[in-house]
Amino acid sequence: MLASADVEKDRMRENPTLLEASFVSPAKKKSMIRRDHPELSISQQCRLVKLSRSAFYYAPVGVDAATLA
User: Fold this and answer.
1) Using 50, 70 and 90 to split pLDDT, how confident is the model at 67?
2) Domain count, the chain
3) In 3D, which of 33, 34, 35 has the Cα closest to residue 50?
4) Which of 3, 23, 43, 59 lies deepest, with the highest CB count within 10 Å?
5) Quick check: 58 and 67 in contact, CB under 8 A?
6) Average pLDDT of the chain, as a whole number
7) pLDDT at 5 over 90
8) What distance in Å separates the CA atoms of residue 36 and residue 5, rounded to the nearest whole number?
9) pLDDT band (50, 70, 90) for residue 43
10) Who contacts 45 (Cβ-Cβ below 8 Å, separation ≥6)?
């Protein structure tokens, strides 16, 4: 397990973009995914930006008007 963490740190040192991507908010990651991408499926895009598919598809439930009254 420790070796894989070291490998990940080395990858981030070699490619600063990966380090920046690790600090991107889930909302920003979600906006980066295109449903109509010609080559990459949604699943592949989620994996690339390190966003779970459930987070991509999640739609918050609105508050019912009766609850507010």
Assistant:
1) confident
2) 1
3) 33
4) 43
5) no
6) 81
7) no
8) 34
9) very high
10) 32, 33, 34, 37
At 1 the pLDDT is 47
Domain region containing 53: 11-57
For residue 64, tell me if it sits in a domain.
no
Residues composing the chain: 69
Task: Tokens for 16, please give them.
Answer: 């600063």
CB atoms within 10 A of CB 30: 15
pLDDT at 23 over 60: yes
Query: How far is it, in rounded angstroms, from Cα 52 to Cα 66?
Result: 33
Q: Is residue 6 part of a domain?
A: no
Q: Is residue 56 exposed (0-12), middle (13-18) or buried (19+ Cβ within 10 Å)?
A: middle
pTM: 0.59
Residue 43 domain-assigned?
yes
